[in-house]
């Protein structure tokens, strides 16, 4: 169920294709074909289980490939990202794995890395320009939102009022997931959205925004959330009001907390992003660029399908990996 798509993602995900740019041909280390050295892993927020899995996977993959690594987090702040990128360049690292802080906001930072002739691979989120990063490896967010919304709509019996918790606006994944939900749910005229709040991927903020939504819409029947942390925040708010048994909540990411909540009936479903597979793939391609100047694949933008998690398969999911 998890496979690498060649540049096209289902349900309207627009992923343009681009061959590796000329900058990759002059990547550090390519001339002598040697790996090893140091890789900078620049992520978003390791306190979030999703990004922790990203970091843990990247660090282990780097060690397995013979590299030292260090990790830094920009917390979706483009200015902090820029500082971390400049530090990595000054440290003369051999490669950078970056989870970008915004599709448009990260272009200049990636350009700096390319100008410094350091290989860079992007994971989890893409930027709005091709031909800079060696690879951009993301989850198929449109496909994931589609399967999640279909399962949630079925649980709602295709009727009722609902609200949405939206992720960080600078992250294009937030809009892609929201659009994916909308494309599915718009097919069911008896499902009506009555409110939306931005909760920035955060559990505490998700709880607070859910409380605000409940104050305005006390009789809602459902919640769709752009990620698991916001969904679990909504669960907390609904439990505090004694309303969870009346409201169907959808998550997205496949964190273990969310999978457990699906198993326990607190969430209707979540959608596993294959971040372990994606990060491992990204590190292997980064290693290839460092050693040879090429990723070994023809597409810069690559998408991995997500997997729906319901009570039927929750017991097979462990730390973002879906078993048999």
UniProtKB/TrEMBL annotation:
Domain annotation Periplasmic binding protein: ranges: 39-291
Keywords: Signal
InterPro entries: Peripla_BP_I, SBP_2_dom
Signal sequence residues: 1-21
Protein name (Swiss-Prot/TrEMBL): D-ribose ABC transporter substrate-binding protein
PROSITE patterns reported for this sequence: PROKAR_LIPOPROTEIN
Subcellular localization: Cell envelope
Keyword Signal: yes
Family: Belongs to the bacterial solute-binding protein 2 family.
Native source organism of the sequence: Promicromonospora aerolata
Gene3D superfamilies documented for this protein: 3.40.50.2300
A Pfam family of this chain: Peripla_BP_4
Superkingdom of origin organism: Bacteria
């Amino acid at each position: 169920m998890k496979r690498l798509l060649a540049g096209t993602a289902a349900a309207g995900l627009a992923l343009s294709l681009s061959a590796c740019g000329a900058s990759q041909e002059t990547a550090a280390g390519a001339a002598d074909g040697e790996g090893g050295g140091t890789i900078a892993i620049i992520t978003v927020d390791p306190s979030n289980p999703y990004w922790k899995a990203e970091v843990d996977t990247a660090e282990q993959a780097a060690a397995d490939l013979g590299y030292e690594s260090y990790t830094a987090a920009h917390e979706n702040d483009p200015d902090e990202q820029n500082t971390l990128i400049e530090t990595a360049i000054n440290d003369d690292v051999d490669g950078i794995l970056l989870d970008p802080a915004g599709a448009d906001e990260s272009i200049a930072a990636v350009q700096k890395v390319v100008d410094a002739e350091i290989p860079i691979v992007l994971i989890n989120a893409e930027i709005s320009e091709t031909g800079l990063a060696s690879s951009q490896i993301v989850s198929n967010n449109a496909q994931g939102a589609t399967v999640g919304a279909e399962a949630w709509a079925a649980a709602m019996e295709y009727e009722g009022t609902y609200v949405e918790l939206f992720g960080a606006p600078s992250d294009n994944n937030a809009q892609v997931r929201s659009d994916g939900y909308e494309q599915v749910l718009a097919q069911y005229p008896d499902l009506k959205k009555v409110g939306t709040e931005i909760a920035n991927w955060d559990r505490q903020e998700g709880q607070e925004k859910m409380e605000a939504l409940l104050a305005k819409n006390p009789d809602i029947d459902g919640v769709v959330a752009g990620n698991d942390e916001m969904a679990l925040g909504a669960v907390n708010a609904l439990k505090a009001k004694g309303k969870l048994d009346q409201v169907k909540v959808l998550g997205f990411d496949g964190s273990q907390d969310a999978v457990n909540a699906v198993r326990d009936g607190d969430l209707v479903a979540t959608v596993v992003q294959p971040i372990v597979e994606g990060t491992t793939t990204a590190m292997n391609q980064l290693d290839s660029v460092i050693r040879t100047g090429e990723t070994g694949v023809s597409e810069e933008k690559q998408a991995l399908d997500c997997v729906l998690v319901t009570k039927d398969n929750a017991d097979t999911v462990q730390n973002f990996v879906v078993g048999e």
